[in-house]
Amino acid sequence: MTDLVIREDRGAVAHLTMNSPGSLNALSDAMLAALKARFSELAEDTAIKVIVLKGAGKAFCAGHDLKEMQRGREAPDNGRAYFADLFFRCAEVMQMIPALPQPVIAEAHGIATAAGCQLVASCDLAVAAEDTRFGVNGVNIGLFCSTPMVALSRNVPRKVAFEMLTTGEFISAARAVEVGLVNRVAPHEELAAETEALATTIEGKLGAAVKIGKRAFYDQANMDLAAAYEHTAAVMVENMLWRDTAEGVQAFIEKRKPDWAE
């Protein structure tokens, strides 16, 4: 099962490759299970500081496996129970990404459509090849991308999200950067290097600080302004009391490299 998502560690950076190029890395039942298994193991891996998620072959991810979904209709209930379970499992995997202690970078190329676009939007950061296209195009086949809408509408302005959802039209990588779906764009041949550069920059920071900061980032986003400040102030107090943070501050004052224990 986990061969569907290949893991390769390069130092403290884990590279996960969705490995079903024949289906454009569709989020089949097996692919969702493989992603869940990989995310679960990485959640407990303290040696890994950054995760990169990519797709094998011509595309990042083409969304749900429509042929598999159609087979679900063969059940006596016309697929109702299967579809409910499928969308629950997919949402579970998407929510694992912001809950992971490590920042997750999507390395997108080719296409990222429907639940594949949702996957990019669910990642903390994204780098795309300049010829990548993004879309939530289920409406073109009569299926509004309601679950992908959750992650998309939390990344891009509401009118941009609604236009993408109702027209089914693709946006370019350049437009994806402009609206906030993607952080960086690179020529296709430089995509891996650009992603690695971003991962290496984050890897070089104090891992515990990035971990506590990522958790606080998502926690405060769901609070009102006063509660967010109260919460993040408490997080900063905890952070400031660490030995490695005291060392980092002193190293900055003394204009030297910090001697972190991590």
From TrEMBL:
Any one Pfam family match given in the protein's UniProt record, by short name: ECH_1
SUPFAM superfamilies, sorted: ClpP/crotonase
GO molecular function: hydro-lyase activity
One GO term (biological process): fatty acid metabolic process
Cross-referenced InterPro entries: ClpP/crotonase-like_dom_sf, Enoyl-CoA_hydra/iso, Enoyl-CoA_hydra_C, Mitochondrial_ECH-domain
UniProtKB keywords: Fatty acid metabolism, Lipid metabolism, Transit peptide
Recorded superkingdom: Bacteria
Keyword Glycoprotein: no
Keyword Lipid metabolism among record annotations: yes
Function: May play a role in fatty acid biosynthesis and insulin sensitivity.
PANTHER family listed in its UniProt record: ENOYL-COA HYDRATASE DOMAIN-CONTAINING PROTEIN 3, MITOCHONDRIAL, PTHR43602
Family in the record: Belongs to the enoyl-CoA hydratase/isomerase family.
Official protein name in the record: Enoyl-CoA hydratase domain-containing protein 3, mitochondrial
